[in-house]
């Protein structure tokens, strides 16, 4: 089996940056929509939303997501 190599996180130097994918509004796959550090203490993340790049947005758990007020 071939192992994948991910880039080192430059923010903490301890974790790797791993890609995450999602689905677009029309249901098509959007590959590499986000990159996050594997070091839980770091929290570095880079996300692409509607063509804009966002750095270090807060990372929410399922519990946090349910506590947010509706938009």
- Indicate how many domains the architecture comprises: 1
Question: Percent of residues in helical segments?
Answer: under 10%
Number of helices: 1
Average pLDDT reading: 85
What is the CA-based Rg, rounded? 14 Å
Structure class: mainly beta
Note the overall shape: globular
Low-pLDDT residue spans: none
Strand content: 35-45%
Query: From N to C, what is the helix and strand string?
Result: EEEEH
Total beta strand runs:
4
Q: Looking across the biggest beta sheet, what order are the strands in?
A: 1-2-3-4
The separation of the N and C termini measures 45 Å
Structure description:
- There is one protein chain.
- The chain has one helix spanning 62-67; strands at residues 17-23, 29-37, 45-49, 52-55.
- The termini are far apart.
- With 71 residues, it is mainly beta.
- The chain is built from one helix and four strands.
- Helices cover 8% and strands 35% of the residues.
- It has a four-stranded antiparallel β-sheet with strand order 1-2-3-4, with no helix packed on it.
């Amino acid at each position: 089996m071939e192992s994948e190599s991910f880039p080192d996180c430059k923010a903490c130097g301890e974790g790797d940056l791993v890609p995450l994918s999602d689905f677009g509004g029309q249901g098509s796959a959007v590959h590499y929509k986000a990159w996050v550090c594997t070091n839980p203490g770091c929290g570095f993340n880079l996300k692409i939303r509607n063509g804009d790049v966002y750095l270090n947005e807060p990372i929410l758990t399922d519990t946090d997501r349910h506590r947010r007020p509706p938009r």
